[in-house]
Amino acid sequence: IAVTGLLKGECDAGEKMQFYFCLILCFVLGAALGVWCSDWMQAKAVWLCCALGLGAVALMFRQQEKDERA
Question: N or C: which end of the chain has fewer CB within 10 A?
Fold first, then answer.
């Protein structure tokens, strides 16, 4: 949807695409870091993934507040 918005020239499509890209990137990095840290930190590695997930949730709420103001 964001890509077609970019092609049509909608001004907020690029911003939405960047937001969702960052959100997906947070989840991917959290999963990759969890796999890497699981051998090293064992069960405590899940807390690191939770921190990255919390950051992604914070980004979602920030975007939601921004959308409500507009």
Answer: C
